[in-house]
Write a structure and sequence with these properties.
Blueprint (H helix, E strand, L loop, with lengths): L1 H29 L6 H15 L2 H11 L4 H6 L4 H16 L5 H9 L5 H11 L7 H23 L4 H23 L13
Length: 194
């Protein structure tokens, strides 16, 4: 199931950057009318740079495991992935971009430990090179999570803002749980020789 999970990661990460970019544009459009927007846009712009090409990492890991990344790209994302990304895009565009912080909190706060990654590698029989995305996120996400919580602490949030973030966080957890629950083996058809 590791290849299927890497495809899922690719699908989620591929959707994340455009949503964050939309949130920056929305913050800029709202402007000084909301004191949350300028520091939120600065945080998101920095986070966009940190997350750039992570979706490519998942494809490279699949290739290192002997799977064709073109087949991964052709996989139709399940409805749960569309709900995860789509809800955030809707809230960014039609309500308030601060809601995106709830989703980022879910995606950045629970990185895999080295021990868990080692167990996944050993049980799967896949080469170490196919676990780079997991290992890099295990190393990077604790700092990303700390940066996120620092941003939240510095933002002039109202109780309503906190409720919006919580709504997004709960919806993101539900969608992500559904994404993982829907994982199925992929018919790779043209798996390359390892």
């Amino acid at each position: 199931m590791i290849p299927s999970f890497l495809v899922l990661l690719h699908q989620i990460m591929r959707a994340s950057l455009p949503v964050m970019e939309a949130a920056v544009r929305r913050c800029e459009a709202i402007g000084d009318a909301d004191p949350v927007c300028a520091p939120l846009a600065a945080y998101l712009a920095h986070h966009i740079d940190e997350e750039r090409d992570h979706d490519v990492w998942a494809l490279e890991d699949l290739e290192a495991a002997g799977f064709d990344p073109k087949i991964a790209i052709r996989q139709v994302p399940p409805p749960s992935v569309a709900r995860l990304a789509g809800a955030q895009r809707y809230w960014v565009e039609h309500h308030h971009p601060v809601m995106l912080l709830g989703c980022i909190m879910v995606l950045e706060s629970f990185p895999p430990s080295e021990e868990i990654i080692d167990q996944m590698r050993d049980r799967s029989g896949l080469p170490e090179e196919s676990f780079r995305t997991f290992r890099l996120h295990g190393a990077l996400d604790p700092q990303h999570s700390a940066d996120l919580f620092d941003c939240i602490d510095r933002l002039p949030l109202t109780p309503y803002d906190v409720d919006m973030i919580a709504t997004s966080m709960i919806a993101s957890m539900e969608s992500l749980t559904e994404c993982i629950g829907a994982l199925r083996p992929i018919d790779w058809q043209t798996r390359r020789a390892a």
